[in-house]
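Figure-free illustration: sequence to structure, shown twice.
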Amino acid sequence: MRLRSPLLLPLLLALAAALRPHDAAATSLRHYAYTHLPVNDGAPADIWTLEQAPTGYLWLGTGMGLYRFDGIRFDRYPLREGQRVPPSNINALKVLPDGDIWLGFFAGGAARLRDGRATLFGPREGMPPGRVLRFASTPDGALWAAAAGGLARYEAGQWQVVGQDWGYDDGAADYVYVDRRGVLWVCTPRRLVFLRPGERRFQDTGESISRDAVLAEAPDGRLWLSEELQGTRPLPDHAGSTAPASPVAPPAPGVRAPVYARAKQLLFARDGSLWLTVWGAGVWRLPSPGNIPAGRGLSPSDPLEKFDQPDGLASPVVVPVIEDTEGTVWVGTNAGLAGFQKKRLQDIPELSSSSYGGFMLAVRNTQVLVGNRQTALLVDPPAPPRAYEGPLPTLTATYAADGAVYWFNRGQVFRRAGDMLRQFSRPAGTVLAVVPNGADGVWLSIVGQGVFAATPEGIQRERRFGDSPAPYAMARGPGNEVWLAFEDEVVRWSGDHPTRYGPGDGLAIGRATTIHATDRNLLVAGESGVARFDGRRFSTILESRDPAFGLISGIIDSLDGDLWMNGGRGVVQVKAGDIERMFSQPGGELNYRLLDWRDGLPGIAMQAGLVPTAVRDQRGRLWFTTNRGVAWLDPATLLRNERPPRTEIQSVRAGDRTYLAGDGLRLPEGTQSVTLRYTAVTLAAADRARFRYRLEGVDGEWHDGGSRREATYANLTHGRYRFRVVSSNADGVWDDTGATLDFTIQPTLVQTKAFAAACVAALLAIAWSAYRMRARAIEKQVQLRLEERHRERERIARELHDTLLQGVQGMVLQFDSVARRIVDPELNQTMERALVKAEDLITTARDRVSELRTTDGPLGASLAVAARELTGEKLLVNVSVTGDERPLRAAVRDELLMIAREAVANAVRHAKARTLAVSLTYGARRLSLCIKDDGVGVDPSHASHDGKPGRYGIRGMFERARRLGGTLRIRGAPEGGTEVDVSLPVAAAYAEAPSGRASGRLRRWMKRFKTARSE
């Protein structure tokens, strides 16, 4: 066959190279763990651009708007009320160091977001028309935008289209990029130009390019370009040459072959690898781009690693690619967000295709025996694995101390030492555990049988454990001690002496799964948790407290003393310095690192195994078996994310409203329950971040929040609060600064100080009212009793007047008539004198009856009369009245008068006094009566309610004062003599009611007021 054109053969060869299957020659990104965050998990669709902010957030420009990603949640940009941005697709995104966010839209125009407020820029604000594709900022602080309508520059608050005065005469710009030297590169639809720092004229590189070209800078400083004419390639240093570059002619249209590796975006990761997003073909990675010479495009022969839909990529429509500060590579697709994180553990690819019922793992010096039911390999990285020659061990393979390997199946036990293989029959029953006995054999725990020893001589019962039942796990510890573990019970055999530990000793692990016994630590794991022995008792961390400590089936120490546990959630690492603290402080913080599938661990720890699932080889490498393979790591070279996360409090929810966190946050009155939402901005395995928080004034200690990102408090009252939270990344590096939020709960009306004061005043008023009511009740009772006594006195007076006095008067009249008939003068005179005395007695009795019935007249005058009557001329008497004399209740007046008469009489009869002073005081609150003499005084033992034995004068005075509701005191005066004080409350003493007193006071006040005005 003859070719009609010399150009046909090269074209066919190029087509064949372009169309052949790429994946057959390429390797997948097997050293990276792939994370897919789909739309169903909250991720937005149609992600066209990605940018990481200085705060650590990953911002996503999408067809659905602007989103923020903290590693766990996707949140829309929180615009303030009333603020809006165009709903168009976001093609360009730039986050500046000052926090400003610039958006470029597919429909044209740009927006600046600052503190929740949006400022829009269109043609009237200087923006070129058409869609905005890319932003870049130069060291001079200027912001550049590539748009379909041209190139624009933003400076001093104004956009300006760049034109001929800058040496830029292209009508559009597809891409802008600033390299580490500060050179600005612009891809136009037909050429590549650049602008050096400090210059104002663009220079042409001479590179002819197609539309939609993209750029990236390699670690070696070379600029890479990807476009449709020549594919993806490194460029010469055009900006470093002094002379303008000569134009490079594009390939002739007739001989141009399909381009290989045309990228939508380029990324150089920190390890120097080149990442490409290829539309329709997924994510590609070139491990060593430095081997590609300048000007040569990538070809199918280059060692490209690829990740496409067959590998798990959700969608082949991929555009943006970015590496965050923690080393994770993120790719945006039209079906969500994809992440690639470098694995820390290495698996054994030869075993990863299928589990075949489980995996074996046994260590001997630097070599490790791994395998499944069909394959057995001896591995010692970095050397390639080699096949284990000879009979295939089962998953129970275990090395004895002498180097022989034991395994068993069904009713047989096999021992291989070198090329010598021996076989023994074992007792019937299920084997629960296998452990080396420290010599040339192994121990087997057999259900229903106990513990047996398999040695080169055969199998026999291990007598040192007596009749012990079959344990679920066994281990040899220091000093030839042996530990047997059951369900919530551990037995330590030291020689022939067992020591048992159970729930009373802090053991609460459920059914035991493995024991780890070294001179550093003794730990026993079970289905419910892990317990550590401190020499006296166990301390348990339950799975219910943290799931990472559940279903542990392998425990090992690394050479540096760290503790590694292979469990149901992955491999847990506890630093040597944290082990004792974690187990000795119930409820304290759990500071650990978890390695899971994102770190290269294939699956989770294999359960129900007969041998531990974690071992250490002689080189210090750690090996783990899982339900999907075998993996290993070298702790000495393990990568660790030393960047603490940025802790942020995002919002506060109170009732049905959510408030953005900020200074001066005030919550509504009556708020009793709040939920504080916080986060740790760490994009690498963010779900493994841990938190501690406290609300000052409520929490005395820090709470271990685990991985929860909300804290709820109830039964709060009004006042000021301060919430503090700190976080750690997935590797246990803590952000000790943390975040703080001060907020105030406004008081309700009943919680205000004014209301409290009003309540106190009301209570005082109620108390005063209750007191007044009680006083009035007592006053009424006293008044009733006094009136009753007064009526009784009147009745007695009437009876005396109407019966006794009248009867005596009648008798006097009869005796008078008899006296007139007596003739004897002497006897008659005697009768006359008796009758005169009788008439005087009647007169005195009548006066007494009159006094009983008379209550009129001021008390002061009555006191003066009574004092003169009782003292005669024997004493010098002074009667004084202080205050406005007011009408008294009749009973009060009479009782006070009787008390005064008794006191004056005592002074006359017993005190030998020379002077007597009687003072009556009408006060605003109390009525006081004082009788004071200068006599010999009174015996203190008689100046009480009981008075002098056999006498009733003083006792009667106290009884009268008590009946009036007042007080009476009898005491010796300082200058000699006796002083009698009677005091009554005005409510019980004065005849007028309180309202009358108030009216009297009001009248007096009004009188004074009128007098003052007249003056």
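We now fold a second protein in the same way, so the two outputs can be compared directly.
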Amino acid sequence: MGRAKGKAPPSVAPVLKPEPRREPRQDAQSLLPPDQKSDSAVKSAKRVFDVLEFFEERQGMASAAEVAVALRFPQSSTSALMRTMTMLGYLHYDAGRRTYMPTARVSMLGQWISPALFQRGRLINLMEDLSAKTGETIMLGLRNGLAVQYIHVIQAKLPMRLHVRAGTQRPLAKSGLGHALLADYSNKEVRRLVKLLNSYEISPEKQVDIKALLLDLDKVRQRGHALSLGLVTAGAGVVVMTLPRLAESAEPLAICVAGLTNALAEQETEFAAMMARAIRFHLCD
């Protein structure tokens, strides 16, 4: 099957430019309840993980200036942070090129937690298969507290595309990924979570409408997948399908095909069928 292509809707300004569309980096703090928001020290620690996630996507060396621009960090503090990471053995500094690269120590950090999750190749093969067949951005996500998070991303190959970083978080009850995962919960549990979410939202108009959400989740259960068009980002959306429970992961996972709204709207059924076949082929023993 050839790669799916879609034409951008003329009313959506960002998609008229023939260049990768980068998502603004979501501040994870905005998705946390007030009593869980971090102080400045924890914010500094968060930047360490932002740097590591930058290199995961980059898959190559980069200067401190490039990292600072990509992550929108101050130049001076980025340089200081990366020097410290080098001193601790997590980055290697090439003085001749003035570039940094993660060391093997980084790759060893999380292998003990779930060594089979990616090493066995099932999830990576699934994502690469969907990437090759759709040409769109493919994302793997899970629930993270009262939010959802993309933990691995294969960027789109189309000239007009949505660019999302691994580590990006989305609202649990206001995103396609969140709806797909919530659809596997009982309505009683969904109500409990929504009540908790709304308790942290001061503005009534921003609170989740539980009745509308439950209707949306019923549609997800009937279709077998979630469709989100412009729910989080104008002009973009996702088709999401949950994965069968895997022994490699303690958390439920979901796979997303992300792209521009017109492509997803036109090919929702095709993409969903493609995802279902790929999941059966790669994950069902």
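Summary for the second example: The first helix runs from residue 40 to 58.
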